Amino acid sequence: MLKRCISAEWMKLRRSRIWWILLILPILSVLVGTANYYMNQGVLMKEWYSLWSQVGLFYGEFFFPILIAILGSYMWRLEHLNKNWNLIMSAPVSAAGIFLAKWIVVGVLLALVQLFFFALYLAGGKLAGLTSSLPGELAGWLLRGWIAALTISALQLALSMRIRSFAAPIGIGLCGVLIGLAMFVAHLGMFFPHSLLTMGMGVLSQAGLTSGELLTFAVMNLFYMAVIIAWAVNRMRKSDVAA
């Protein structure tokens, strides 16, 4: 049943314009970040690490969370149109299957975005004339960024499920970015989804996480995912549909 739900979600996306968003936002991140690095090489002297500090800042702190929020709203767009909620909730599929299918599809898309961002980062470094080896932490940054993105996507999907407006959950996501930044500055980054992304991707600090921090990072992401998904599924099962 879950497989059928996932197939249905892919069919909805086949000819959608969301693919342009998945391409444009990472490209903008790398273009702006690489240009900033290139113009400040006298100060930014750690080559690939310095380049990451620039492209990662624009991508991980702003464009990637915005992309996740847009995806979350888009995945529920059809359900909020033309009383489609009545149809989907009367279909022979479970509430868990509906929500998890959307979350899994978003997770796959975000993994592709991360790989695309890596290719852009590599291309930006080559264009900037970097010849040294890539950072050894790069794979960890990308993987942890994807894990934190899964947490944020669960949150955005839950918000978009309950809020009919396409833009409102995106605005809430932007507020989440600001809260996450404040939490990171206050050394509480492990306790909020958006700041988990900041820490996981090494956006504001390229210093590696300790083993204890890695464990906390994993536990907090799993906790948020489980709580948010459980709440969303329970809400779908017990609440009346607002078609």
Summarize the SSE layout with pairings.
Elements: H1 2-13, H2 18-39, H3 48-75, H4 84-89, H5 95-127, H6 138-162, H7 167-185, H8 193-200, H9 211-238
Give a description of the structure:
- The protein is mainly alpha-helical.
- The chain has one domain.
- 74% of the residues lie in helices and 0% in strands.
- It contains nine helices and no strands.
- Helix 7 crosses helix 8 (193-200).
- The chain is globular, with a radius of gyration of 19 Å.
- Pfam families: ABC2_membrane_4.
- It comes from Insulibacter thermoxylanivorax.
- This is Multidrug ABC transporter permease.
Quick description:
The chain has nine helices and no strands. It has 243 residues and is mainly alpha-helical.
How many β-strand runs?
Answer: 0
Number of helices: 9
Helical residue percent band: over 70%
The general outline is globular
Low-confidence stretches: none
Overall pLDDT score: 91
* First and last CA, distance: 24 Å
Strand share of the residues?
under 5%
The structural class is mainly alpha
Query: Gyration radius, to the nearest Å?
Result: 19 Å
Overall tally of domains: 1
Give helix and strand order, one letter per element, not per position.
HHHHHHHHH
Q: Main beta sheet, described?
A: none
Transmembrane segments: 20-39, 51-76, 97-121, 141-159, 166-194, 214-233
Pfam family, one: ABC2_membrane_4
Protein name: Multidrug ABC transporter permease
Keywords: Membrane, Transmembrane, Transmembrane helix
